[in-house]
Amino acid sequence: MPYISASIIMQLMTAVSPQLEQLKKEGEAGRRKISQYTRYGTVILALVQAVGMSIGLAAIGQSFESARTGDINIFALVAIGLLAVAIIGFVVFIERGQRRIAVHYAKRQQGRKVFAAQTSHLPLKVNMAGVIPAIFASSILLF
Q1: Domain region containing 8
Q2: What Pfam families does the annotation carry (predicted)?
C-alpha cells in the first residue's frame, strides 16, 4: 500500500513541480531518479503508517485494559460487520456503475438497398479512473 500511495503522490507531484517535470522529460535517467524518489517516499509512508498503527493498537489495548474486561459487545461486533459489508457493497455498486448514452446512426444506402438506422449504447463508467481513487483513499485513511 505505501508503494502505491507513493507512486500516486509522485505522479501528482510531477504535474505540479517543474523540477520533477523536467526529470520526467529527461528519458531513462529521469525515470530512474523519479523511481528512486518513489522508493524513498515508500519508506517514509511505511514508517508513518507503522507508527500510526502501533499507536492506534496501543490505544485500543489500553482502553481494554482500563475497562478491565476482555468481553466484546456482540451488538457492536455485528454492527461493525454490517457496516463493513455495506461499505464494500457501495464501493462495488459505484465501481460497476455506468451511464449508457444512446448513439443513433443515420440510415445508409448502398445502391438501391436502404439500411435502417441503428441504435447502440456508449457505456461510460461512473468512476473512469478505476480503482486508483479507492486505493489512494484507503491509504490516506490508514494515517
Answers
A1: 1-70
A2: SecY (PF00344)
